[in-house]
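hey so i finally got around to running both of the ones u sent me last week. sorry it took forever, my laptop kept dying halfway thru and i had to restart like 3 times lol. anyway pasting them below in the order u listed, first the sequence line then the C-alpha cell line for each. didnt double check formatting much so if smth looks off just lmk and ill redo it

first one:
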Amino acid sequence: MEITWRWFGHNDKITLPMLRQIGVEGIVTALHDVPLGEVWTREQIRSLREYIESYGLRWSVVESLPVTETIKYGGPDRDQQIETYKKSLRNLAAEGIHTVCYNFMPVLDWARTDLLHPNADGTFNLFFSYAEFAYFDIYILKRNGAREEWSRTAIPSPAGEKRDILAEVDALARTMTPEREHELVENIVIKTQGFVSGNFREDDEAPLEKFRQFLDLYEGIDKAQLRANMKYFLEAIMPVCEECDINMCVHPDDPPIEILGLPRIVRTAEDIRWFLNAVPNPHNGLTFCAGSLSAGAYNDVVAMAREFAPRTHFVHLRSCHIFPNGDFTEASHLGGRADLVELCKIFESLSPSPLPSRSGEGCAQLSNDSVALPLHGGAGRRPLPFRVDHGKTMLGDETRGYNAGYSFLGRMYALAQMQGVLATLHHS
C-alpha cells in the first residue's frame, strides 16, 4: 500500500517537508479555497500538484471533491452541479490525479461531541456521547420532532444495553452551562466541518440558523430517495470516470447511525452492497474507513474488509472503542474494534490489477452476500493508498492549532505503528 497523509493545503500548520521526513509518499488533499459548487480548473490543480511535487511527494488522492447538497437531495440545479463535477473530474485526470474520495452524508461530514476527551495516559481523543448529541438536537437545535425520535431510538451497543436516553438528556439539562452549550455547537457544527470545504465556516455568524436551513432541504427525503439520488449521481459521472480512469470512493457515514432525522445510506455491509450493485462499474468504489465502520456495534469490520477489498480504492486506518452503553471514542491504532493488523494483511495482500477498459467487461453483478469484481488499480497498476486517520492529541498537539482530529504527533505516532505492522508483514 502507498503511505499517504491528509494535508490541508498551504495554510496547514503541518508542512510538506515535515511529512517527507516521516516517510509519507503521497498527499491526500483538495482545493480548499475553491467555493462549493465551482469548477476546479486545470490551472488551480496543476499549481497545487507542482507545489507538492517540488517537495518530492505526489498528489495521490483528492479528499474531497465535495458533492453539493443539491445533488444529494435532488435540487433544481442538480444536473448543472453534476456537469460542474464532471468538469472538475476531467481536469483532475488531465493533471494525473485519478482517485477521488467523497461522501454522500446529508449536511454533516462527521460528528463528535468532544474533541479533546481525556485518556488515562494523558492524551486526548475524539469522543461521541449519544446523550450530549441528543441534548444538542432537542435543547439547542430545537428540531421539530427530535424528542419523539430519540424516545424510540435504540442505541447500538456491544452489550445490548438499553438506555433511557431522554432521562439522560433531561438530567444533562439540569446541569448544562452556557459554556458547554457553546462548545457543543462549536464541536458539532463548526470545528468538525469548516476546514473541509463544507457547508460551515469558522466565521459564520448564525451557524444554528444556517444548520436548520440545511436540514429543511431534506424534508421528505427518506433512505430510498437518498439512495436513488446517489445512484443518479454515480450513473451520471461514470462515463467520465471510464474515459479518464477516475476511481470514485465513497466514505462511510461517520458515525454510522441515523441522526437529526436525516437518512444515512453508507452505514452497514448491506448499504455498501447496495451502492456497489446499483452502479456495478469498478470505478464506483469504497473508501474503507475502518474507524467509521468500527463505530457501529453491528459491523464486523474484518469481514467487511475481506468482502469489499476488490472495490476498495482508498483506506483510512483508525479504530474505535465502543463503551457498554454505546458511546464511542477513537482508540489506539493497535486497539479498538477494527483490528488494523488484520486489515493491513487483507489490503496488503492484494496485487493491483488493471481495470477493464469498459464497465461491462469482466464486471459481474454482486450477489447479496459477496463481492467478486476486479481489484483496484487501473491502467497504471496504481498501489492502494492508505492514510492514518484521527490520531491522538498528545505532547502539546492541542496547543498548536491543528484541525480537529488531525494532530501531527498523534498521527505520526499512529503512522509509525502502521509502518511497523506493514514492515512485519513484508518480512514474514
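and the second one:
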Amino acid sequence: MRKVVVIIFILGFVFLISGCSIKKTEELTDAEKFANEYSISEKNPFQYATINEVLELLESKSGILFLGDSDSEWSTFGVKILNKVLKEKKIDEVYYFNPEIIKNKDSKKYKKLVDLLELKEDSYLPIVYVIVSGKVVDHVDYPVHDDVSLDDNSVEELEEEYSDLISLYL
C-alpha cells in the first residue's frame, strides 16, 4: 500500500512539474505561434494581424504584408524563403494575415480587402505586399502552376523576387 501511495505521489509531482514548464498557446508570442504554424525558426518577424489592422495598413500605414495559409504547400514553401530574406534585410516586423479565415464570415471587410489589394479570382497564396503610406508599392504573387516545382531553381528565383520587393520597402 505504501508503494502505491509513493508511486501516485511521484506521478503527481512529475505531472505538476511538466505542466508548469509547458507554455499555453495563449502565452506564446506571435513569432512562436507563427513558427509552430509554419515550421520555421521562432526568431522571425511575423506578427498576426486582424482584418482591421490589415485594412488600416492599406489605408494609411507602411509595412510588409504576408498573405498566406499554412495549409498551403506553396505558402509554407514561400515563407521559409521570405523569412531568410527578411533576416538578411534586417526586417523586424511583417504583418501576417490569412484571408481564408474571413472569406465567408465578414463579406464587407473581405470585399474591401480584395478591392484594396486588387485580388483576382485566380490569385493564389502566398502573396507578399510592400505598402508605403497606405499605397501598395508592389507585390510578389508567386506563380502556382502545375509546371512550377519546388526545386532549387524555384528557391533562387523566389529569393531574388522577395529580395527585390523588400528593397522597395527599405
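quick thing i noticed on the 2nd:
The longest helix spans residues 2-21.
anyway thats it, ttyl
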